[in-house]
Amino acid sequence: MRRWWQRRSLHFRLALWYALGGTLLLAAFSMAIYVFVAMTMARPLDHQLRQDMALVSQRLKVLPGRKIIWDGTTLAPDVASKWSDPWFELWDEEGHLVCRFWPFNEKELDQLPYAPVRNRETISVFSVAPDLRLRVLSMPYPVAGQEPAWMIRVLRVHEPAAEALSALLLIITIALPAVVALLVYGGYVVTKHWLKPLDEMVMEADRITADDLGRRLSVKNSGDELSRLASVFNVTLDRLEGSFRALDRFVADASHEIRTPLTTLRSVGEVALRRGRTPDEYREIIGSMLEEAARLQFLTERLLELARAEGGVKTAPRQMVRLEECIAECLNELGVLAENKRQRIVFDARECSVETDPVIFRQALQNLIDNAVKYSPADTVITVSLAETGRFVAVTVTDQGPGIAPEQRSQITDRFFRADAARARDQGGFGLGLALTNAYMRMLGGRLEYEPAQPLGSRFGLMLPKD
Amino acid sequence: MPSVVPSPRVLVVEDQAKMRASIAEGLQMEGWIVITAGTGDEAVRLIEAQAFDLLLLDWMLPGRNGIDVLRHARERGQQMPVLMLTARGEVKDRVTGLEKGADDYLPKPFAFAELVARCRVLLRRPLLGSGRVPCCGDLELDTRTRVAVRSGGEIPLTPREVDILEYLMRRQNQIVTREMLERDVWRQTNRFTSLDNVIDVQIMRLRRKVDGGRADQLIHTIRGVGYCLGKEPS
What we know:
heterodimer, A: alpha+beta, Helix Hairpins, 15 strands, 19% strand, rod-shaped, B: 8 helices
């Protein structure tokens, strides 16, 4: 289940993030500033409060029986309204007000300061009237014979600091939404601008279809993520186009190969029926048709085998194989073909064991030998050798045939590849042998290699992995 | 010889009419009695009503498929040998077929000669018994010493040539396809890298040795099909 914002565009989500994140971050930042400024501005006032406290403590005495002495004289509560010394309050052990000396008429005030927290030094602010705020410092005040201690509190007007702070608060409340709005708008515009190439890529990619694979995304050389994305996408398209082309070519080649024997089959049959013939002639004609049918069957089987091998179903059972024995056996079997063309197959055997599938390996080798015999002229030598190179065991087949032209070398493993199409077809080949060999080698975890032989001919290598 | 043993009765179950007719005709030429069915249901009715010595069963049939027919027959205690025919040549299909009680399995397309050869094996009627010295006209092969003699003169043969000759001589006047030789003489199970050209060359060399310079040729090429050893090409 996708959340609602996951269904929105990237622009929208980024702008939303700017709005939410920006608001939260700015709010936290403003709050921090406000607290800091408030504390800094209150510092001189707090200092004055402490001076008041020292003065009061020095001049005030409380005698038993709640007698309050100020500079040696007893203080009566009625002097409070004419008080010009530092303002103070005394609170007894039960939290009741003992006395308060300040110049205000309590009846004109909305609210009076309430009892301080006991046994602790605290600074707090009271709003006593709409236009009057007081900052107070409270401390424990030990009085002989009273346990716990009384509390003493000095007070001063808080006014000047409060003015500046409310101005700050006003600035913050106005500025914050404006900044957030700018952030959202700017974020939306900027991301839209930066993500514009992405939109363009989407539109361009949308125009690329199977019929029109030649199109490519335009890549700006900025080296950022989007241009890298575009070039990676283009490489993928190259590969896709390549495999589409290969598929097209394969279909064209395969249908040509299938149509040829089918056409022969039909025309031989049709022509044969145009007039009466002797049984011997019929026998000959049917035989010729059967040959074409066999050719079709052979082609079908090879194609199926190729599809299976290229599908890479690695069911090949592996076992330790004595390669030199396997090769010798194969050469022994195919030797008659070479003998028939007065060719000689030379195998410089050496002991070599490798873990692989002997049946598939033999098929691969058989294809190479078959090709070598087929395409080399009479009275030549075909050399088979066995060597260990690094991680691989290389079985090479070198012939003295015409070799493969440099421009054709990259295509040798293509299906229906023939170096010399006309001649190969006469020899009964379909040009599937090397494609099959290549697929077999992949099944075995190895590969097929080609290099021209000196001075003339081809050298094919079957590279088998040692482990 | 055929007059002594009653002709085998073979039921051919194949939905393609052309294929069915050609199999039937081919097997009748072997002197067998052939009954045909085009659907699985028809086959089941026939199997319940009559006894057969051999069942040729196509896998893919309309309605009840070959495997169903086979299961049905086996459940009724029918023990006749069954040869499955199918266009599905995968090894796992083959295994499934054999597991369900088929005795042999022949993937399409097949050579007719091969079909006949397989049927013969299932009917336990090889043309030549396991006689130690098969002969054909003036050609004799001692399978123990592996020496071939024609008109009293020994023919020098390689071991592979002896194998081929023995295979052909045990199937005199029968067509032997390249597939059969490849499987039974070369013992290659995977036919995809074909040995066809090797086989052709070997046969050509064998023929040169056996028939070279003689008027009465024994080894014949049946064009588009295979080879045949006998006095006269069939």
